[in-house]
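Comment on the following before class.
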Amino acid sequence: MQSISSGKLALFDLDNTLLEGDSDHAWGEFLISNDLVEEKAHREKNDRFYDQYKQGALDIHGYVAFTIQPVMQLERTQRAQLLAKFMEQSVEPIILDKGKELVRTHLDAGDFCIIITATNEFISTPIAKLFNADLIMATQLQISNGMYNGKILGTPCYQDGKVAKINAWLDQQEARFNLSEAVFYSDSINDLPLLQEVATPVAVDPDRRLREKAESEGWKILTLRS
C-alpha cells in the first residue's frame, strides 16, 4: 500500500471496467473447468446470479454463499493454491492493459487510487494488487475458525453499499479527501449511487442503461478495450 497522497481520490470498479469480463462469474467457470463442482447445476446457478447482477437485482448474500461454498472446507494454504491457479488460468487473460495504464496515470498524478468492487474479497484482493492501487474495497467475508462460513461481514460493497463503505472510510481520513472532488470509473448501472456522488463520473464500456444515463447527463464515456 502507498502512503496517503495529496492528490484527489480516484475510484475504479473492477469487473468489466478494469477487466474484460467478470471475475466472480469467471470463478464459477474455473471451478467447472477444473472438475471441482458439478457442471450443469453450477453453471445454471452461476449464470442466473450473473443475470440478476446485470439487471441490478442481485441477491448478493445468496451469491456470496454460492461462490464461497466450494472453498469453505479448505484451509488458508489450500485456498491460496487454488486462487493462484484461478489467477493464472482465468484472470490474467482478461486484465486490460489500458485499465492498468489508467490506474497508473492517476497514481503518477499523485491521486489516491481505490478499487471498489462488489466481488468478494477472496476473489478480488489478489486481482486488485495487480493494478498497484492504494486500497481495495470489496465485499468482506466472515471467517470462523480460519475458514469462510459463506456469510458477508458488514455491508456488502454493492449499489448503495459502495457509497456507505467509501463514506465510512472517508470519515476516518481527517478530511484528506472528499467525493465532491473524486472521479469514479465504472461500467455498471449498479454503481449509479456512487457515480452520482462524485465530481467526475466516467462510464467505462458501459452497459446499456448506464450508457443511456451517461449520455443524458453528459458524463464522459470511455473505452479501455480498443
About this structure: The beta strands are 9-12, 112-120, 135-139, 141-144, 147-152, 183-186, 200-204, 220-222. The longest helix spans residues 39-54. DSSP finds nine helices and eight strands in the chain. The two ends are 30 Å apart (CA to CA).
